[in-house]
Amino acid sequence: MREADDPADWVAQPAGRENWSETPYVERDVDTELSGLLLHGGFVLLLGESAAGKSRTAYEAVRRALPAHAWVRPFARSSIGVAVEAALACAPSVLWLDDLENYLGPDGLTVSHVHHLLGNPRTVVLVATIRSEEYRRYDTHEGSRLTGADRDLWRAERAVIARATVVRVQRLWSPAELRRARVLAPSRRIGVALQACDRFGIAESLSCGPELVNLWRDAWACGAHPRGAAVVTAVVDCRRAGLRRPVPVEWARRAHEAYLAARGGECLRPESFEEAEAWACRTVRATSSLLSRSADPAALTCFDYLLGSDGLEPVPDHLWETLLPLVQGEEAYDIGLVAHGELRLRHALVALNRAQQDQVPGADFALALVIGDSGHPRQAIDLLRAQARGRVVPLSVRRQVAHFQGTAGDYVAAARAFRDLVHEMTPTLGADHPDALAARHEAAYYTGECGHTSTAVAELTALVADRQRVLGADHHQTLATRRSMAWFQGKGGQLDLAIGELSGLLVESRTILGTRDPHTLAVRSALAQFQGEAGDWERAARDLADIADDRQAILGPGHPHTLATRHQLALALAHSGDHEGARTLLSALLSDMTSHLAPDHPHLTAARISHAALH
């Protein structure tokens, strides 16, 4: 360890590492605790926001506490197995995993690896860092959003993180840390950072994070560096789409053009690509750069501080379309899971098909879920059952089969299946386990869809109280249960009660989840439906037209929710007296539904009935 003095060997994120040797290290409040943990051995994980100083703190602590240990670092997720064996072979050693998230997933670090490494805790010490944004993906609230393969993978990765002792490195420095920094203020860089310590952390300022974000935003101006800004945006969005490795320069050359065109193209008087790349890789105050060339000089890495910038737009379709033909295997799987989580089902299908063809573990299960969510639930059921044939069917598979039975319109079978799951889960997991609560929600929901609305309202009302107690009033699943409760109140004829509940819920959802969240859109849709049924069909039609546009922009034109909203809109037009508009919309809708949905999908069947009634 004492010989590993080149920061470029240590840090996955290049920002500022070139200046470590020039910038005095300021003792952090966690140093004493961290040194003790390292001497004791085990798995130590430094957690903090981007540019909080995690890597520098770990670097100094490891070299201080374990100077004679051998040092092992894998350069890719696929080499984790080799790195584990190397760490054991040359023990006592440190296995160093900067940006731990890059080493989790298929063929990555597993609980078995951790057990293997830590069998003798004084032999191998596992040291890792992780950004707060990535760490938050593994809390219970985030996991409760996931289903199927996504959830199984999340659990496996979370089990790894759960073995670590977490040390938090704060972005904003404590008074004691600032006092120690002021002693070193003659260092020009620390003196400059201290001037902004009321708004930014010292390490954040040392890495020039806020300055770089402003540089990126200002570069879009006409005649500034608009092509450079487009290249940076393309590389950032490749990472946000799930690509873990550096972006080849040629990919960036291809991907950035659509970003530039969307902002004005040649009207912005863009520089050449070579000038754009040089600008993006130029360091600010000899510290950090927006992009950096990786160990492969023909590839680019973005400064991860940019990933948490305020106001980032969703990754656009053109980036997915450019990226997907260029990846395969595990990269396609990673990108497919991100696309599915972002409800970009068309892109998830392409990515997971490729991952399945490359026999990535778990890809067949994830692909079945995307096929079902895309409007082919019975095909998904067949795929899931085929995958489970000849072995005990896991709860995750049974849960998904039940869900797709409901999506396919077989409400009785879905309600029965979820009630069976509740009875099995409750004694083993506990009544308050998120999976048991989720199964209760689905059982009540499909009971309501069977026509037993009063039973559904009673069960969902009880579930709201339990979810508020276990998860909190602001949790998205608590909000979803309230939405379902209001839905069946309205379906049962209690329109005023449902409208009042949904109106209040819409305000909360916009505040807590945002205007683009699918739950918020679902609340708007239900509210418009009941306002129409209460007699104001013209208002309902206006609202549903807006919701249809929003769902198309967020989910895509072929998503079942988008198509269902267009059907709602056609019915609202008919009720308000615009029969010609309704007929025109239904004719186009039937064509689109036929292209995207299974022939027996309930949405398509309902649209055919409506079309026949209006003709």
Q: Can you summarize this structure?
A:
The protein is mainly α.
Q: What does it look like?
A:
There is one protein chain. It is globular and about 80 Å long. The termini are far apart. It has 31 helices and 8 strands. It is 61% helix and 6% strand. The protein has 615 residues and is mainly alpha-helical. It has helices at residues 7-10, 31-40, 54-65, 80-89, 111-117, 132-136, 140-143, 148-162, 175-183, 188-194, 202-206, 209-218, 226-240, 249-263, 273-280, 317-323, 329-341, 345-357, 363-373, 377-388, 395-407, 411-429, 434-449, 453-470, 476-491, 495-512, 518-533, 537-555, 560-575, 579-596, 602-614, and strands at residues 42-48, 70-72, 93-97, 124-131, 165-168, 247-248, 291-293, 299-302.
Query: What fraction of residues sit in β-strands?
Result: 5-15%
Number of strands: 8
Distance between the termini: 79 Å
Counting helices, strands and paired strands, the structural category is mainly alpha
